[in-house]
Amino acid sequence: MSKIMKIAFEEHFMTPGFQEYSKSFLGLIDSDVAQKITQRLSDFDDERLKLMDAHDIELTVLSQTGPGVQGETDTARAIERARYSNDFLADRISAHKGRLGGFAVLPMQDPKAASEELERAVTQLGLKGALVNGHTGGTYYDAPQYDVFWERLQALDVPFYLHPTDAKTQPFSFADHPEMQGATWGWGVETASHALRLLFGGVFDRFPNIKIVLGHMGEGLPYLRWRFDSRFAVYHHGIKLARKPSEYLGSNIVITTSGVCSHPALIGAIGELGEDAVMFSIDYPYESTEEACTFIETAPLDDATRRKVCRDNAARLFKL
Question: Hey, which bits of the chain come out as E strands?
Protein backbone atom coordinates (compact mmCIF):
# COMPACT_ATOMS: atom_id res chain seq x y z
CA MET A 1 0.00 0.00 0.00
CA SER A 2 1.33 3.44 -0.92
CA LYS A 3 1.67 6.07 1.77
CA ILE A 4 -1.56 7.80 2.79
CA MET A 5 -0.50 11.22 4.01
CA LYS A 6 -2.62 12.73 6.77
CA ILE A 7 -3.36 15.95 8.61
CA ALA A 8 -4.63 15.64 12.19
CA PHE A 9 -6.10 18.52 14.14
CA GLU A 10 -7.78 17.44 17.33
CA GLU A 11 -4.43 16.79 18.92
CA HIS A 12 -3.73 18.17 22.36
CA PHE A 13 -0.93 19.64 24.45
CA MET A 14 -0.64 21.18 27.89
CA THR A 15 0.53 24.73 28.50
CA PRO A 16 2.76 24.88 31.60
CA GLY A 17 0.64 25.89 34.58
CA PHE A 18 -2.64 24.86 32.95
CA GLN A 19 -2.73 21.56 34.83
CA GLU A 20 -4.95 23.23 37.44
CA TYR A 21 -7.75 23.51 34.88
CA SER A 22 -7.57 19.85 33.83
CA LYS A 23 -7.01 18.13 37.16
CA SER A 24 -10.72 17.46 37.70
CA PHE A 25 -11.18 15.23 34.66
CA LEU A 26 -7.66 13.77 34.63
CA GLY A 27 -8.36 12.72 38.20
CA LEU A 28 -11.12 10.42 36.91
CA ILE A 29 -8.62 8.41 34.84
CA ASP A 30 -6.52 5.58 36.26
CA SER A 31 -3.42 7.18 37.76
CA ASP A 32 -0.92 5.30 35.57
CA VAL A 33 -2.82 6.22 32.42
CA ALA A 34 -3.22 9.84 33.57
CA GLN A 35 0.52 10.07 34.19
CA LYS A 36 1.26 8.83 30.67
CA ILE A 37 -1.27 11.23 29.15
CA THR A 38 0.22 14.15 31.08
CA GLN A 39 3.68 13.21 29.85
CA ARG A 40 2.51 13.08 26.24
CA LEU A 41 0.65 16.39 26.56
CA SER A 42 3.96 18.06 27.42
CA ASP A 43 5.92 16.46 24.57
CA PHE A 44 6.52 18.41 21.37
CA ASP A 45 9.81 16.97 20.17
CA ASP A 46 10.03 13.24 20.85
CA GLU A 47 7.25 10.64 20.88
CA ARG A 48 4.73 12.90 19.15
CA LEU A 49 6.96 13.41 16.10
CA LYS A 50 8.00 9.75 16.02
CA LEU A 51 4.36 8.66 15.89
CA MET A 52 3.67 11.19 13.15
CA ASP A 53 6.57 9.82 11.10
CA ALA A 54 5.57 6.20 11.70
CA HIS A 55 1.98 6.79 10.53
CA ASP A 56 2.47 9.28 7.68
CA ILE A 57 1.03 12.32 9.46
CA GLU A 58 2.53 15.31 7.71
CA LEU A 59 0.95 18.01 9.91
CA THR A 60 -0.48 18.03 13.42
CA VAL A 61 -2.41 21.11 14.57
CA LEU A 62 -2.13 21.33 18.36
CA SER A 63 -4.70 22.62 20.84
CA GLN A 64 -4.64 23.20 24.58
CA THR A 65 -6.36 20.32 26.35
CA GLY A 66 -9.64 21.07 28.12
CA PRO A 67 -11.06 22.99 29.71
CA GLY A 68 -8.22 25.53 29.51
CA VAL A 69 -9.20 29.14 30.09
CA GLN A 70 -12.87 28.23 29.65
CA GLY A 71 -12.49 27.00 33.22
CA GLU A 72 -11.15 30.35 34.46
CA THR A 73 -13.59 32.46 36.48
CA ASP A 74 -11.56 35.69 36.41
CA THR A 75 -11.89 37.44 33.04
CA ALA A 76 -8.69 39.46 33.28
CA ARG A 77 -6.72 36.35 34.17
CA ALA A 78 -8.36 34.42 31.32
CA ILE A 79 -7.18 37.08 28.85
CA GLU A 80 -3.67 37.02 30.29
CA ARG A 81 -3.47 33.22 30.35
CA ALA A 82 -4.79 32.90 26.80
CA ARG A 83 -2.06 35.22 25.52
CA TYR A 84 0.55 33.30 27.49
CA SER A 85 -0.64 29.95 26.11
CA ASN A 86 -0.70 31.18 22.51
CA ASP A 87 2.79 32.67 22.80
CA PHE A 88 4.04 29.42 24.33
CA LEU A 89 2.51 27.30 21.58
CA ALA A 90 3.82 29.53 18.79
CA ASP A 91 7.31 29.24 20.26
CA ARG A 92 7.16 25.45 20.47
CA ILE A 93 5.85 24.92 16.95
CA SER A 94 8.47 27.29 15.52
CA ALA A 95 11.02 24.53 16.08
CA HIS A 96 9.04 22.20 13.81
CA LYS A 97 7.71 24.41 11.03
CA GLY A 98 5.71 22.44 8.52
CA ARG A 99 5.12 19.56 10.95
CA LEU A 100 3.29 21.29 13.82
CA GLY A 101 0.65 23.98 13.72
CA GLY A 102 -1.59 25.40 16.40
CA PHE A 103 -5.06 26.52 17.40
CA ALA A 104 -5.44 29.58 19.59
CA VAL A 105 -6.76 29.57 23.14
CA LEU A 106 -9.42 32.28 23.46
CA PRO A 107 -10.81 34.14 26.48
CA MET A 108 -14.47 33.82 25.50
CA GLN A 109 -15.40 35.46 28.81
CA ASP A 110 -14.98 38.73 26.88
CA PRO A 111 -16.09 38.51 23.23
CA LYS A 112 -14.16 41.62 22.18
CA ALA A 113 -10.98 40.43 23.89
CA ALA A 114 -11.45 37.00 22.30
CA SER A 115 -11.77 38.66 18.87
CA GLU A 116 -8.60 40.63 19.40
CA GLU A 117 -6.66 37.61 20.65
CA LEU A 118 -7.84 35.53 17.70
CA GLU A 119 -6.61 38.18 15.29
CA ARG A 120 -3.26 38.46 17.08
CA ALA A 121 -2.86 34.68 17.15
CA VAL A 122 -3.62 34.29 13.45
CA THR A 123 -1.92 37.36 11.96
CA GLN A 124 1.08 37.68 14.27
CA LEU A 125 1.69 34.18 15.66
CA GLY A 126 0.64 32.21 12.57
CA LEU A 127 -1.90 30.00 14.34
CA LYS A 128 -4.52 28.36 12.15
CA GLY A 129 -7.75 29.24 13.94
CA ALA A 130 -9.07 28.47 17.40
CA LEU A 131 -10.19 25.54 19.50
CA VAL A 132 -12.51 26.47 22.36
CA ASN A 133 -13.50 23.99 25.04
CA GLY A 134 -17.24 24.54 25.04
CA HIS A 135 -19.23 27.12 26.95
CA THR A 136 -17.64 29.60 29.33
CA GLY A 137 -19.26 29.56 32.76
CA GLY A 138 -22.56 28.48 31.25
CA THR A 139 -22.60 31.17 28.56
CA TYR A 140 -23.14 29.89 25.02
CA TYR A 141 -21.84 31.61 21.93
CA ASP A 142 -25.17 32.15 20.18
CA ALA A 143 -25.73 35.02 22.64
CA PRO A 144 -25.92 38.43 20.89
CA GLN A 145 -22.74 39.73 22.51
CA TYR A 146 -20.74 37.17 20.54
CA ASP A 147 -21.66 38.61 17.13
CA VAL A 148 -18.56 40.80 17.36
CA PHE A 149 -16.51 37.62 17.68
CA TRP A 150 -18.20 35.77 14.81
CA GLU A 151 -17.75 38.81 12.60
CA ARG A 152 -13.99 38.75 13.28
CA LEU A 153 -13.78 34.99 12.74
CA GLN A 154 -15.50 35.36 9.37
CA ALA A 155 -13.21 38.21 8.35
CA LEU A 156 -10.10 36.19 9.25
CA ASP A 157 -11.55 33.14 7.44
CA VAL A 158 -10.20 30.57 9.90
CA PRO A 159 -12.01 27.61 11.53
CA PHE A 160 -13.43 27.46 15.06
CA TYR A 161 -13.17 24.00 16.63
CA LEU A 162 -15.90 23.55 19.25
CA HIS A 163 -14.52 20.96 21.66
CA PRO A 164 -16.46 19.20 24.45
CA THR A 165 -16.67 20.20 28.08
CA ASP A 166 -18.86 19.37 31.05
CA ALA A 167 -22.37 20.79 31.13
CA LYS A 168 -22.80 23.70 33.53
CA THR A 169 -25.39 21.59 35.35
CA GLN A 170 -25.57 17.85 34.84
CA PRO A 171 -28.94 16.64 33.45
CA PHE A 172 -31.21 14.94 35.98
CA SER A 173 -31.16 11.84 33.77
CA PHE A 174 -27.46 11.42 34.64
CA ALA A 175 -28.19 11.24 38.38
CA ASP A 176 -26.48 8.26 40.04
CA HIS A 177 -24.75 7.45 36.72
CA PRO A 178 -21.38 9.23 36.66
CA GLU A 179 -20.27 6.96 33.82
CA MET A 180 -22.72 8.82 31.55
CA GLN A 181 -21.02 12.13 32.21
CA GLY A 182 -17.86 13.22 30.43
CA ALA A 183 -16.43 11.64 27.32
CA THR A 184 -18.60 8.51 27.26
CA TRP A 185 -21.85 10.37 26.61
CA GLY A 186 -22.35 13.72 28.33
CA TRP A 187 -19.68 15.67 26.47
CA GLY A 188 -21.15 14.73 23.09
CA VAL A 189 -24.66 15.73 24.16
CA GLU A 190 -23.37 19.05 25.53
CA THR A 191 -21.30 19.92 22.46
CA ALA A 192 -23.93 18.87 19.93
CA SER A 193 -26.46 20.99 21.82
CA HIS A 194 -24.12 24.00 21.73
CA ALA A 195 -23.67 23.59 17.97
CA LEU A 196 -27.45 23.43 17.51
CA ARG A 197 -27.80 26.63 19.54
CA LEU A 198 -25.53 28.32 17.01
CA LEU A 199 -27.58 26.91 14.13
CA PHE A 200 -31.06 27.69 15.47
CA GLY A 201 -29.81 30.95 16.96
CA GLY A 202 -29.18 32.22 13.44
CA VAL A 203 -25.41 32.60 13.79
CA PHE A 204 -24.85 31.02 10.37
CA ASP A 205 -27.43 33.27 8.74
CA ARG A 206 -25.75 36.36 10.14
CA PHE A 207 -22.26 35.07 9.32
CA PRO A 208 -22.71 32.63 6.43
CA ASN A 209 -19.04 31.95 5.77
CA ILE A 210 -17.89 30.75 9.20
CA LYS A 211 -16.74 27.19 9.71
CA ILE A 212 -17.42 25.35 12.97
CA VAL A 213 -15.60 22.04 13.41
CA LEU A 214 -17.02 19.27 15.59
CA GLY A 215 -14.97 16.23 16.55
CA HIS A 216 -16.01 12.70 17.40
CA MET A 217 -17.75 12.12 14.08
CA GLY A 218 -19.81 15.29 14.54
CA GLU A 219 -20.98 14.48 18.08
CA GLY A 220 -23.82 12.43 16.56
CA LEU A 221 -25.42 15.28 14.60
CA PRO A 222 -24.88 13.92 11.05
CA TYR A 223 -27.20 11.01 11.71
CA LEU A 224 -30.18 13.22 12.63
CA ARG A 225 -30.12 15.66 9.69
CA TRP A 226 -33.38 14.37 8.24
CA ARG A 227 -35.15 14.54 11.59
CA PHE A 228 -33.98 18.10 12.26
CA ASP A 229 -35.75 19.20 9.08
CA SER A 230 -38.85 17.13 9.71
CA ARG A 231 -39.44 18.19 13.30
CA PHE A 232 -38.28 21.81 13.03
CA ALA A 233 -40.87 22.30 10.29
CA VAL A 234 -43.53 21.43 12.88
CA TYR A 235 -42.00 22.69 16.13
CA HIS A 236 -40.22 25.85 14.95
CA HIS A 237 -41.58 28.08 17.76
CA GLY A 238 -41.55 31.04 15.40
CA ILE A 239 -37.83 30.76 14.60
CA LYS A 240 -37.04 31.50 10.96
CA LEU A 241 -33.90 30.30 9.23
CA ALA A 242 -32.66 31.09 5.74
CA ARG A 243 -32.17 27.38 4.99
CA LYS A 244 -33.29 24.01 6.25
CA PRO A 245 -31.40 22.93 9.39
CA SER A 246 -29.80 20.07 7.49
CA GLU A 247 -28.20 22.46 4.99
CA TYR A 248 -25.96 24.05 7.62
CA LEU A 249 -24.50 20.63 8.43
CA GLY A 250 -21.72 19.96 5.96
CA SER A 251 -21.36 23.63 5.05
CA ASN A 252 -21.06 25.76 8.19
CA ILE A 253 -20.58 22.73 10.43
CA VAL A 254 -17.90 20.26 9.35
CA ILE A 255 -16.54 17.32 11.32
CA THR A 256 -13.55 15.19 12.17
CA THR A 257 -13.33 11.49 12.88
CA SER A 258 -11.45 12.02 16.17
CA GLY A 259 -12.18 9.35 18.74
CA VAL A 260 -14.59 7.33 16.57
CA CYS A 261 -12.86 4.52 14.68
CA SER A 262 -15.93 2.93 13.13
CA HIS A 263 -16.22 2.27 9.40
CA PRO A 264 -20.05 2.25 9.37
CA ALA A 265 -20.11 5.56 11.26
CA LEU A 266 -17.62 7.05 8.79
CA ILE A 267 -19.61 5.92 5.75
CA GLY A 268 -22.79 7.30 7.30
CA ALA A 269 -21.18 10.67 8.06
CA ILE A 270 -19.85 11.00 4.51
CA GLY A 271 -23.25 9.97 3.16
CA GLU A 272 -24.98 12.67 5.19
CA LEU A 273 -22.49 15.55 4.99
CA GLY A 274 -20.60 14.84 1.78
CA GLU A 275 -17.00 13.80 1.21
CA ASP A 276 -15.74 17.40 1.49
CA ALA A 277 -17.01 17.91 5.06
CA VAL A 278 -15.40 14.96 6.88
CA MET A 279 -11.76 15.06 8.01
CA PHE A 280 -9.40 12.70 9.77
CA SER A 281 -8.18 13.35 13.30
CA ILE A 282 -7.02 11.25 16.25
CA ASP A 283 -7.66 12.95 19.63
CA TYR A 284 -4.08 12.32 20.74
CA PRO A 285 -3.04 11.49 23.43
CA TYR A 286 -6.45 10.34 24.62
CA GLU A 287 -6.81 7.93 21.69
CA SER A 288 -4.35 5.67 19.89
CA THR A 289 -2.55 7.07 16.84
CA GLU A 290 -1.97 3.56 15.48
CA GLU A 291 -5.63 2.58 15.84
CA ALA A 292 -6.91 5.79 14.26
CA CYS A 293 -4.54 5.56 11.30
CA THR A 294 -5.26 1.87 10.70
CA PHE A 295 -8.97 2.69 10.81
CA ILE A 296 -8.78 5.35 8.10
CA GLU A 297 -6.30 3.43 5.95
CA THR A 298 -8.55 0.35 5.87
CA ALA A 299 -11.87 2.19 5.53
CA PRO A 300 -13.99 1.11 2.52
CA LEU A 301 -13.37 4.33 0.57
CA ASP A 302 -12.18 4.96 -2.96
CA ASP A 303 -8.73 6.50 -3.23
CA ALA A 304 -9.96 10.00 -4.08
CA THR A 305 -12.34 10.12 -1.10
CA ARG A 306 -9.70 8.74 1.24
CA ARG A 307 -7.27 11.48 0.16
CA LYS A 308 -9.92 14.11 0.82
CA VAL A 309 -10.71 12.77 4.30
CA CYS A 310 -7.10 12.14 5.27
CA ARG A 311 -5.54 15.34 3.98
CA ASP A 312 -7.07 17.41 1.19
CA ASN A 313 -10.15 18.69 3.03
CA ALA A 314 -8.03 19.87 5.95
CA ALA A 315 -5.46 21.39 3.60
CA ARG A 316 -8.27 23.43 2.02
CA LEU A 317 -9.65 24.43 5.43
CA PHE A 318 -6.24 25.68 6.54
CA LYS A 319 -5.29 27.09 3.10
CA LEU A 320 -2.09 25.05 2.95
Answer: 6-13, 57-64, 100-102, 130-132, 160-162, 212-214, 253-256, 278-279
